[in-house]
Amino acid sequence: MLMDNPPPHSSIMPAERAFSKAVIENILGMPFSANNRVRLLKSGQETFQEILDCIKAARRIICIEFYIFKDDDTGKKVAGLLKRKAGEGVSIYLLYDHFGSFLTSRRFWMDLRKKGVEIRASHPFRWSAPRGYLYRDHKKLLVIDGEKAFVGGFNIADEYHGYLRKRRKTWRDTGIYLEGPIASTLLNIFRKSWKTWKGGLIQWKAAHRPAHQQGVPVIPVFANSRRARSRMRRLLIYSIRNARKQILITTAYFTPGIRIQRALVRAARRGVSLKLLLPGESDVLSVFYAGRAYYTKLLKAGIEIYNYQGSVLHSKTAVFDDCWSIIGSTNLDIQSLRRNEESNVGILDTGFAKQMIDTFYSDLENSVRIDPETWARRPIYRKILEKFFYLVLKKL
Fold first, then answer.
1. How confident is the model at residue 211 (pLDDT cuts 50, 70, 90)?
2. Catalytic residue among 140, 148, 161, 275
3. 14 pLDDT exceeds 70?
4. Measured between alpha carbons, how far is 139 from 144 in angstroms, rounded to an integer?
5. Is 314 one of the annotated active-site residues of the chain?
6. For 152, phi and psi rounded to 5 degrees?
7. Which candidate in 316, 322, 333, 363 is catalytic?
8. Choice among 314, 322, 349, 363 that is catalytic
9. Domain extents in the chain
10. Statement: residue 26 has pLDDT above 70
């Protein structure tokens, strides 16, 4: 197993010289939210324990928006708490993606509705526009009382929680807990999505609470429209182009567009240490093989590629130098970058970036680095599969 040691953080250029807060705000069309508490969630058990605890403590409103909400043990446990909180008078709004949660039973949703939970489905299938079913709400967002929020790559299902009865592998995912003014901003974003899917007006007035005086600046990186997806892509390209020392990217699905691909290659060629952590196995074989069709070009540019082992990698994170981090639901693939609605947050803070860097290098301990010479000698049938799925996905 070949790995590099993490570079010393002190050798990386300071945040204010590498990235511009004003430029990031201009790209996204919204300001940073200052003075927030944030906590990186690096395991399913940690993430869901925090989620369950926060739902139990909710007093006024719970807003939930997930691509997948299963009716398995984890889904039933979360649903049971939601029904209990609804009985206590807490307003609960649940938005799920029709395709992502297609296998969740109607009885499950009906039971939640009977207990007072408001529910809507996004992007339902329509015979009049079947191609529209390619567009999905891939967001993962939970907001409680406009004060606490969760964003990340996880969905509501056993494989993300980390306990499975059958002999199936759990998933390696990453989330983030946010507390402070950013939670109110995220609630307002949810309200717009809820209205889009005919959920009606959510009456809400934020309670005045003092911000955390030593918190960090956070900015939403959401894609709720074609224009917002364009802004998200611009931000990714800006971030790659402005990195001076290091880029660390983890993604579950990897089929980047030509502009992002070129930006990655040019960053490596100008001397940036660029590492990609990608799955060693995947639940979507077409994207898995199509993504590997990019390896040769990236390896030739000097980009280090690692394949995660032991669990199914599902995290979507990026850290640039020692200061600018993005974490959420967006993969570096065609579906996320061109079609999906996505939820991410950006954090401009060296302390949080250090946590991201440490987590990345910890994941490398469970990964295998792709050796260019060995890669060139891979079996011919794999090359055929890579080329085939690359061409198929490119035409979709």
1. low
2. 140
3. no
4. 16
5. yes
6. 165, -160
7. 316
8. 314
9. 10-395
10. yes
* Distance of alpha carbon 244 from alpha carbon 31, whole angstroms: 24
State how far the Cα of 197 lies from the Cα of 124, in Å rounded to an integer: 10
Q: Please state whether beta strands 344-348 and 216-220 pair in parallel, antiparallel, or not at all (unpaired).
A: antiparallel
Decide if 98 is catalytic.
no
Strand pairing partners for 179?
A: 37, 148
Give the active site residue among 70, 138, 148, 275.
138
Write the pLDDT tens digit of every residue in 92-134.
Answer: 999 999 999 999 999 999 999 999 999 999 999 999 999 889 9
Whether residue 358 lies in the annotated active site:
no
CATH class of 10-395: alpha beta
SS (H, E, C) 58-125: CCCEEEEEECCECCCHHHHHHHHHHHHHHHCCCEEEEEEECCCCCCCCHHHHHHHHHCCCEEEEECCC
What pLDDT, on a 0 to 100 scale, did the predictor assign at position 166?
62
**Each residue's pLDDT tens digit, 352-366:** 999 999 999 999 999
**Strand partners of residue 40:** 176
Helices and strands (DSSP H and E) totals, the chain: 15, 17
The pLDDT, as a whole number, for residue 168 is 66
- 216/202 Cα distance (integer angstroms): 28
Residue 163, pLDDT score: 66
pLDDT of residue 28: 97
Is 321 noted as a catalytic residue in this protein?
yes
